[in-house]
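Retro notes (design track)

What went well: tokenization of the new backbones is finally stable.
What didn't: we kept losing track of which sequence belonged to which structure.
Fix going forward: every design gets posted as structure first, then sequence, in one message. First example under the new rule, 186 residues:
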């Protein structure tokens, strides 16, 4: 599990941009489930011209690797899977930044994001647990990494998920059978 200091390298700066964002991936799974090791912070963010400028100001090149603005603009122009990294020079800790683009699951989840506390010292915006479960199901289907079912079971056990919220997305994404399989095993 990353130390709160590593997460705070990014969260406070993300908060300062004013851009809608949500922490997802392993960090969200840790918050909703059980501690485990992760080497990065996954963030979904909705950027426009003003918030892109704020993001570039919030992550100074003297402290972070930040791609050139032209690269971020090119990633913003992608309708799906726009992505770039922010890397803290001193620690090497990385944020994988995924742009909302036209992804319908991002559009659904952003208004449902939650404010959560990390270690009692840091408050951040986190994707809803249903989104985290859906993405982990999707990634498990693609790569078969054993960490995803473990994370899903922990989220169900510790935080719970609203199955009525999941149902249309499970159908739409073709994940219903996999969801039932993971539930039956846990």
């Amino acid at each position: 599990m990353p130390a709160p200091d590593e997460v705070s390298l990014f969260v406070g700066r993300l908060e300062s941009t004013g851009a809608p964002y949500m922490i997802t991936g392993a960090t969200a799974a840790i918050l909703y489930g059980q501690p485990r090791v992760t080497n990065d912070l996954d963030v979904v963010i909705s950027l426009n011209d003003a918030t892109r400028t704020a993001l570039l100001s919030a992550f100074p090149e003297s402290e972070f690797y930040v791609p050139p603005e032209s690269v971020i603009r090119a990633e913003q122009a992608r309708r799906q899977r726009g992505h770039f990294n922010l890397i803290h020079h001193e620690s090497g800790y990385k944020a994988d930044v995924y742009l909302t683009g036209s992804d319908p699951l991002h559009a659904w989840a952003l208004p449902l994001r939650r404010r959560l506390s990390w270690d009692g010292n840091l408050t951040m915006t986190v994707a809803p647990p249903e989104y985290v479960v859906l993405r982990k199901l999707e990634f498990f289907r693609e790569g078969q990494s054993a960490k995803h079912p473990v994370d899903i079971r922990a989220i169900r056990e510790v935080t719970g998920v609203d199955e009525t919220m999941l149902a249309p997305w499970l159908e739409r994404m073709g994940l219903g059978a996999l969801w039932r399989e993971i539930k039956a095993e846990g």
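Added context from the reviewer: The CA atoms of residues 153 and 185 lie 9 Å apart.
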